[in-house]
Structures are given as C-alpha cells and as structure tokens.
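Run log, item B.
One chain of 334 residues. Sequence copied directly from the ordering sheet:
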Amino acid sequence: MLDEPAAVLEVSDLRTVFATRDGAVHAVNGVSFSIGPGELLGVVGESGSGKSVTMMSLMGLLPSPPATITGGSILFQGREVREMTPRQMRHLRGGEIGFVFQDPMTSLNPVFTVGYQLVEPIRVHMGLSKAAARTRAAEILALVGIPDAKARLDDYPHQFSGGMRQRVMIAMALSCDPKLLIADEPTTALDVTIQAQILEIVRELRHRLGMGIVWITHDLGLVAGIADRVIVMYAGQVVEHGPVSAIFSDPQHPYTRALLGTVPSVTGPREKRLRTIEGQPPILTADPHYCPFSARCRHVFNRCRSENPPRLPVGDGHDVACWWDPATDDPRDV
C-alpha cells in the first residue's frame, strides 16, 4: 500500500489574542486543520468569525503588538513556522506560500508600477534575471485575464479597476509557483465571467503543481463547486469540518445549518426567501469556556452554557463541536 503524501500544512490548536483597552480579545481559539498537496480547503463563516485572522496568523502578518500567538503549532512541509527567523519567513511568504489579500484597493503600493511589484518577488524567490522575470510577469498577468499584459506592466495601480487589481493580486500570489495558496475572498470584486476564468486557472494549477489551496469565502455555492473539504468557523473556532458533500448534505452543527439556510432562494413565498440568523455573535473578550453559539442556538442545553464542546467525530473525516445530536434531538452521549 502506497503512503499518502505528507500534508503541506498542519495547524494544531492555534490561538491568537489581541490586547485591547477592554481586555484580551480571543480572536482565534484552538483552530486545527490540515491540507494536502493538490487539495482545496474551503473556509466559511460570517464576518468576524476569525477566518482572515487565522490565515494572517499563519503567515506572521499580524502586527505585534497588539496581536500575539499564544499557543499552537503551524507546520509547513514539516517545518515549524513559529520557530522561523525573519529571513526564513520572508522566503516563505511569496516563495512557498502565496497570499491573495481581501482588499485589492489597498494591497498594491501606489508609488510603484504593477510590473515592479510583480518582477521583484519573482527575481528574489526564483532567481531569474530582470528580463526573464519581466517575461514571466507578463505571462502570469495574461494568465489571469489582463489584456495587453506586457504593456500594462508599466502602469500604476490607480490605472487599473478594482477587478483588475484583484487579478493582479492573484497573479502575484501565483507568480512563484507556491506549494500553498491562501486566497482571502479572491474573487469578490470580479464579475461572474472573470470569476469562472480564475477558478479554472486555479483548478489547472492545483493539479499541475500539486498546490494546496485554502479558499476563504462567504459564497457557499462556490465552495460547494470547488472544495474538497470545508471548515466552518464561528467566534474564532472551527465548529464543523468535513468533506464538502457531508457538510452540505448532512450538516451537524446548528450554526452550519443556519448558515446554509441563509442562502437566498428564488422560489417560495417572498417573505420566506431570505432568512437570517437571529441574535448577535459573542463578545470575544471572555475566555471561551462555553459554546460560543449557545446564545443563538435553538437546541441549547445547560451543558452548552458551561462547557465548550470539543470536535467530536460524526463520520468519515467529519467532526463537529456540538453537544446536540440532530439524529435524536438530544444531547450527544459523550
């Protein structure tokens, strides 16, 4: 029997805290996941659930202070990221891990041309000459759908629309053939036609390069179509994880069910087409010793208000952090 390929990234019990005037904000609370070569992991959850902060923690991109990683392990191809030197981290970012930031309007330096911002990392990480790096930069810009790519290398970010800047950001993340791509809402600013083109490019590269992908999004329909596995985050925690088919066909956590229920429908009575999740997310200054969804949950038990559930296995590769058993509508026997 052949050994399975080692994980590109393994995150275990990651915890990130922000120091504020109101106290410590527990933004990431014991997050664990892994991703293998050529695998696409979807990360979903409402705004403020900790998706972006988790990924910024992995890359060492959070300002410190106020942010501090207080615990956990981040293994990239067997190497502990938290023990890397600043020089090693600079090589990791852009060279081995590509990152597509959420806001393309502020992620590019306005005083440098797009070509300069593409060419420099290619030269640093791939060791190419300036001419060769410029050629590759033009090729990667054309790959993501920028017309007349070679000429546009000499343009500045303000000469590109928001959607075009997003494509430039995606090109920068892919330019050095990374082993892992972290994409934070990468297609939000794009129309559906360009979005489909970008997704096709990503599919092709993940199979050709064996590139693992972490795809953060609010678009549940997109996740259903491209992801292999999904983690659902709430209040800085992973509340459910599993194969994409299991998450969409048999969600086990009340929050996952509520999240899927908010997807708009074009059928049925008008007043029932758009659902919301009642209540407000918890204040994260409190130490998470109880289920963070308990105040908004219809299936809450006394145990939920006093004990934060661990992630419990409920199927093949499927686990959930919840005391409620949807099969019996009773507490889980654990």
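Observations after the first pass:
- The CA atoms of residues 115 and 326 lie 54 Å apart.
- The longest helix spans residues 192-209.
Flagged for discussion on Thursday.
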